[in-house]
Design a protein that fits this description.
The complex is a heterodimer of chains A (110) and B (110). Chain A is mainly beta and 110 residues long. Chain A is 0% helix and 56% strand. Chain A is built from no helices and 11 strands. In chain A, a hairpin with a 5-residue loop joins strand 9 and strand 10. The radius of gyration of chain A is 13 Å and the shape is globular. In chain A, 35% of the residues are buried. Chain B has 110 residues and is mostly beta strands. The radius of gyration of chain B is 13 Å and the shape is globular. Classes of the chains: A mainly beta (110), B mainly beta (110). The interface between A and B is medium-sized, with 22 and 20 residues.
Chain lengths: 110, 110
Amino acid sequence: GQQVMQIPQYQHVQEGEDFTTYCNSSTTLSNIQWYKQRPGGHPVFLIQLVKSGEVKKQKRLTFQFGEAKKNSSLHITATQTTDVGTYFCAGRGSQGNLIFGKGTKLSVKP
Amino acid sequence: NAGVTQTPKFQVLKTGQSMTLQCAQDMNHEYMSWYRQDPGMGLRLIHYSVGAGITDQGEVPNGYNVSRSTTEDFPLRLLSAAPSQTSVYFCASSLGYEQFFGPGTRLTVL
């Protein structure tokens, strides 16, 4: 079946360092979404990318969707302690449902 | 608006017991879904509904039943709980592409 792989599983950074998580799909995606889940919380929608090669920015967060629409990345510049949490990508495949990656857990040392 | 609400927040069951996890939303969203979240496994879709009276299976439907008699409510039933169903359960709803998640139910099956 369709799979969405996400790496790394964990990332520990010093506050102020950059962070990137990568998402890869076994099939072409119609779109990809990113969610953030704070410790003990629920996933919260961040953004959706639809177009091939699309790049979107939200303050210190940069989201990219690959040209082949099979991969995506989330880059955080100059991490802050408020960025702590697990970041999930979710791809929408041919059947229309979202397939979530396993997430990247980010910890930030002050 | 309360958004997506889930009850109970915590539940402990014995193997073989049955129970219903409640989910309600007041945003008039047509699409609702149930996910389970296990450590290192991300979010896996159990069942979903595209509107009242319509339900369908997701990635991991075995052991769970759902119904959708109203737009607002989407309960998840465990007919005979098993230890493998120990997990955190999230309900989500959406009108377009953004999914709104409830706060979750943490279920332990002994």
